[in-house]
Amino acid sequence: MQISVLGAGLVGSAIVKDLARSAEFEVTVIDVNPAALAQLAAAAPVKTVAANLLTEPLAPLIAASELVVCAVPGFMGYNTLRQIIEAGKNVVDISFFPEDALQLDELARQNGVTAVVDCGVAPGLCNIIAGYVAGQLEQVDEYICYVGGLPKTRRWPYEYKAVFSPVDVLEEYTRPARFVEYGRQVTRPALSEVELIDLPGVGTLEAFNTDGLRSLMDTLNAPFMKEKTLRYPGHANLMRVFRDSGFFNADPVAVDGVSVSPMALTSRLLFDQWKLGQNEEDFTVMRVTLSGQRQGQAVRYTYDLYDEYDPASQVHSMARTTGYTCTIVARQVAGGLFTRPGICPPELVGGAPGCFENLLAGYAERNIRLTESVDML
Questions:
Q1: CB-hemisphere CA count at 13 Å for 232?
Q2: What is the distance between the alpha carbons of residues 31 and 52, in angstroms, rounded to a whole number?
């Protein structure tokens, strides 16, 4: 099967290498960066195409592909996904764009395309868990997700590193956080309601509001839902200082006669400071709990994820957990295990027969630890 991967960044590279190890796939990776493509070609049996996906038509580049994986930056995601669907190609997407993917649902159905979106770790795995557990319960009462990716070594002042573009992270700190309380949507500022949470093997982290529920607000029928981001204690206060001082504003300001976007400047200044070194160790931690009713009994499902940088493959944990969730689901689509046409949030994958069990097997094969506990309340 011919598969095209759009994007050769840290996560895109992990996706490419994982797919390329399967003999049944011929992988082509498309990116604007020739150096990144050359590095991938030296590490895996893949074809490479240098192209600027912002300006060049996508359809000719993916004409021979039967499946496309979209790992472009968020600001490019929606338009790129639309072009993939217009080309009639099944797609698994991790670009996490801000637009509503469901606006493309009718187009996907008309073209007979299966388009799994938001298919990383969060959103992604947490949604898959929600879809699976919802199928085990007669009623879901509450959904809570705590999630974060952090460097193992804490370095002042940020004590944070990112595998994604800093501007994508900073947007999480400015976009209002939407929750569900008592069956109604509520909105609170990002970085608010800081709480401390103790997690096994990690210690104490802080959790704060970010806008992470995305499609679950529409697809999961639960009166209480929230997602919070995890960082080392003190990070939220520091980011609030930046935000409230205007450093995260997108609107340009005049400086000595030059128009400058504070967000663009801040992101550029933080890029090198927040960039994970090639062998710098990181970890990903997530706890998802769903409470509800099963056979008339109150029950709570808890899933704990913990993953670390893999020195053998030199793949960072956030790239592993995001990228391998994507590749496992891509294999499900390629193999016909998941075939629903249209725009498919990951919770639909979790609710499809056999997909969650297949994901767990794929995680185990890649040494990603996801544990389940079920408690009667």
A1: 15
A2: 7
Global pTM value: 0.94
Q: Residue 51: inside a domain, yes or no?
A: yes
> Is pLDDT at 18 greater than 90 in this prediction?
yes
Residue type, position 75, single letter: F
User: What's the domain range around 91?
Assistant: 2-120+318-369
Q: How many CA atoms lie within 13 A of 358 on its CB side?
A: 20
What does the block give as tokens for 299? Answer: 């029950």
Q: Which helix (H) or strand (E) holds 78?
A: helix 74-86
**What is the SS3 assignment for 46?**
coil
pLDDT tens-digit readout, 47-75: 999 999 999 999 999 999 999 999 998 88
Cα-Cα end-to-end distance for the chain:
48
Question: How many CA atoms are closer than 13 Å to the CA of 1, on its beta-carbon side?
Answer: 19
How far apart CA 210 and CA 227 sit, in angstroms, is 7
* 124 φ, ψ (degrees, to nearest 5): 140, -95
pLDDT digits (tens, 9 = 90+) for 151-184: 999 999 999 988 766 777 888 899 999 999 999 9
Is the bond into 123 cis (omega within 30 degrees of 0)?
Answer: yes
Residues 167 and 37 placed together within one structural domain of the fold: no
The SS3 of residue 94 is: coil
The answer on 135 and 81 residing in a single domain is: no
Q: How many CB atoms lie within 10 A of CB 311?
A: 9
Q: What domain count does the chain have?
A: 2
Top pLDDT among 82 and 170 is at: 82
Q: What is the CATH number of the domain that holds 68?
A: 3.40.50.720
What pLDDT score was predicted for residue 278? 77
Residues 295 and 187 in one domain: yes
Residue 167 confidence (pLDDT)? 76
202-214 confidence digits (pLDDT tens): 999 999 999 999 9
Q: Quick one: angle between helices 10-20 and 34-43, nearest 10?
A: 30
Contact by Cβ (8 Å): 203, 121: no
What is the CB neighbour count within 10 angstroms for residue 296?
A: 6
Whether the pLDDT of residue 195 is over 80: the answer is yes
